[in-house]
Input
Amino acid sequence: MPEGNADPLDAAVRSLARLIGSTPGPVRRARLQHGDLVVEVEWPDGAAVVAAAPAAPPVEADAGLHYVCAPMVATLYLAPSPGADPFVREGDQVVAGQQVAILEAMKMMIPVEADRAGEVVKLLVPNATPVEYGERLIALAVSED
Output
């Protein structure tokens, strides 16, 4: 379906996904209503993780580094599509607001943006890996601008 003629329910679900992705903490409950249709999702407190990704190794003592973290539980992709160039590579300079990855959750794609300018020091999570809320994805050496 063309973007300009998007279904109102689809647009509402995408808006909800963006809202969940921008919350400062884990979301416990979400409810979406469109006409007579109601979609409600609730996660129990302290829900067990089904398959946790292995912890990323520490990056050179963490001194002066800033981390771009996962805003939600999802699958991380480092490129816009299979076979495409990645959004960023180690050594690249990024600006605040620049897309550095994408998350897929429930068939919705949510962009991950750098919240600070700097140099990409390390990509901490491999492509197509499940990530948890707050998990460190990319280490940045912050610019002094």
Observations:
- The radius of gyration is 17 Å.
- DSSP finds one helix and ten strands in the chain.
- The beta strands are 29-34, 37-42, 65-69, 74-77, 93-94, 99-105, 108-113, 118-123, 129-131, 136-142.
- Confidence is low (pLDDT under 50) at residues 46-53.
